[in-house]
Amino acid sequence: MLQFFYNAAPNPMKVALLLEELGIAYEPIPVDTRKGQQFDPKFQSINPNSKVPAIVDGDVTVFDSNAILLYLADREQKFVPTDLKSSDRAKALSWLMFIASGIGPFSGQSVHFRHNAPQPNEYALNRYDFEAHRHWKIIDDHLSNHTYMLGTEYSIVDMCFWGWARLTPYVLGMGDKTWETYPNIKRLLDLMNLRPAAQRAEELKKQHAFKTEMDDDAKKYMYPQNLRLKKI
Ligand SMILES: N[C@@H](CCC(=O)N[C@@H](CS)C(=O)NCC(=O)O)C(=O)O
Question: Helix, strand or coil for residue 54?
């Protein structure tokens, strides 16, 4: 059975949603990153980047969330434009990479400097918050005249959007005001949250008891760079 290495963070949740949409049988395997399980050599042989998600599908191992989305959608020929030369396929690739290389990293750093950094750092927060907003505005503008990210068809690009969009009020530190600024993101998010697969994906984490405390031990695993700064 396909093994799905995950936790409840945005990148694994994209893949949980696709697995649920496809109805593929899978074994969810928790990787508790606050306990340092991402550094277990057995897991590192699956993902040398020591991050979730990753999957093992028979002889095939795939890590990095959007690579997994594309692999599974191609394998099943569902939720992705399959004509490799088509404009729709090119659009899917563009948006997948945009979310992987822009939305994800800038939102992640925005969360870090807003909520987790040991000292306030106005310069870093301003930079990442600015870039997170800039990227989310591009998505919001795009969704002002597209029902789904690729137009009329629901696809893995929407699933990849969903993983992060659920957290934008936290990412941007704006709470419900987020939706006044980004109403089109809210529209698609609400539409997707109605999907039974999205609800099952949200329920998945209840099967496992992930550590919730961000204590010193968790910080050691999550922010190993702090070791270089003696005073933190
Ligand atoms: N580019 C990767 C990023 C994966 C990633 O950053 N995963 C986070 C959870 S969303 C993680 O494993 N964090 C644990 C850590 O950084 O130690 C992807 O899209 O899968």
Answer: strand
